[in-house]
């Protein structure tokens, strides 16, 4: 697989142009609902508790009680909370995602990473968010990275595997593109930008680079693979910018929760506030929005 050299100036210019487009009227309303339906509502904190996870699941099912706001795509938790989420989401369309493979650093042996994955799968996770070994990738050991992705995908079988690249640690857009290509070839169902645990997370240029990798993979193989953007996405304006990039670089079928996700916690509240403002002409009372 030949490496692609990415022109940083061109990429950043194009990303700024696409993300800066004005989205208005019915398109804005539709895209806000799409953004809500594409959220992996996430809690990955040391203070997580069964009660907090149940509260998050209730919000995932009904983001704004009494409205027609859609449910989110999934709830994302640590493996030890998957059973609690499974019970809380029974009968709903909301999926359960679990981080695994020694999240967020990914610094463990393969046997530990596979055991972490199996715990989540056995508890009922529909989707696994794994992290790559960035140390191996940056030192040139791509075979190690590919082998681990393939091994985790084998354990996941028909359940969805998202591969977190932690793009903020990779150093260049060319390295990000290389990591995307490597993950897709190794079996990732979705490539994900970030853990949300470092200072540099999702950015518009990174999203564009990842979209271009997905488009190239689709042209080469005919296979549709997904994109998840995570970390620091908190406002409706940001979300619409990312959707504009997606819409301009990939075919229309990517604009759905199967192929696209936002990994977020705070984003949902702003989307709901903006949704109600467009619907009624004024912001809803903050107390109407469930706490997570």
Summarize this structure briefly.
This protein has 292 residues and is an alpha/beta fold. The chain has helices spanning 8-19, 25-37, 50-61, 82-88, 110-123, 134-138, 142-156, 173-186, 204-221, 236-249, 267-280; strands spanning 39-42, 74-77, 95-100, 127-131, 160-164, 190-192, 226-230, 260-264.
SSE diagram, text form:
Blueprint: H1 8-19, H2 25-37, E1 39-42, H3 50-61, E2 74-77, H4 82-88, E3 95-100, H5 110-123, E4 127-131, H6 134-138, H7 142-156, E5 160-164, H8 173-186, E6 190-192, H9 204-221, E7 226-230, H10 236-249, E8 260-264, H11 267-280
Parallel strand pairs: 1-2, 1-8, 2-3, 3-4, 4-5, 5-6, 6-7, 7-8
- CATH fold-level assignment: TIM Barrel
Major sheet size, sense and barrel closure: 8 strands, parallel, barrel
Mean pLDDT: 95
Which stretches are low in confidence, meaning pLDDT under 50 for 5 or more residues running? none
Q: Report strand order across the widest sheet.
A: 1-2-3-4-5-6-7-8
The CATH architecture can be given as Alpha-Beta Barrel
The backbone outline, from C-alpha atoms, is globular
Strand content: 5-15%
* Count of DSSP-assigned helices: 11
CA-CA gap between termini: 44 Å
Content-based structural category: alpha/beta
Q: What is the total tally of β strands?
A: 8
Task: Note the run of SSEs as H and E.
Answer: HHEHEHEHEHHEHEHEHEH
Helix content: 40-55%
Corresponding CATH superfamily: Aldolase class I
Report the top-level CATH class: Alpha Beta
């Amino acid at each position: 697989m030949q490496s692609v050299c990415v022109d940083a100036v061109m990429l950043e210019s194009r990303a700024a142009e696409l993300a800066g487009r004005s989205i208005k009227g019915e398109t804005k309303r539709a895209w806000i609902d799409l953004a809500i339906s594409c959220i992996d509502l996430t809690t990955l904190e040391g203070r997580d508790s069964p009660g907090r996870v149940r509260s998050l699941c209730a919000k995932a099912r009904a983001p704004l009680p009494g409205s027609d706001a859609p449910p989110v795509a999934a709830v994302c938790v640590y493996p030890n909370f998957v059973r609690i989420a499974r019970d809380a989401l029974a009968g709903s369309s909301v999926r359960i995602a679990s981080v695994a493979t020694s999240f967020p650093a990914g610094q463990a042996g393969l046997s530990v990473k596979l055991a972490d994955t199996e715990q989540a799968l056995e508890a009922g996770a529909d989707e696994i968010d794994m992290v790559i070994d960035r140390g191996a990738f940056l030192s040139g050991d791509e075979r190690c990275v590919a082998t681990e992705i393939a091994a985790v995908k084998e354990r996941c079988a028909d359940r969805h595997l998202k591969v977190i690249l932690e793009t903020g640690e990779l150093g260049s857009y060319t390295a990000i593109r290389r990591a995307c290509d490597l993950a897709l070839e190794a079996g990732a169902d979705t490539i994900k930008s970030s853990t949300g645990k470092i200072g540099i997370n999702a950015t518009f240029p990174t999203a564009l680079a990842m979209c271009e990798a997905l488009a190239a993979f689709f042209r080469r193989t005919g296979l549709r693979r997904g994109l998840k953007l995570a970390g620091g996405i908190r406002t409706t304006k940001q979300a619409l910018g990312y959707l504009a990039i997606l819409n301009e670089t990939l075919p229309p079928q990517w604009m759905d929760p199967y192929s696209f996700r936002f990994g977020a916690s705070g984003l949902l509240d702003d989307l709901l506030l903006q949704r109600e403002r467009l619907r009624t002409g004024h912001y809803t009372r903050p107390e109407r929005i469930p706490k997570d």
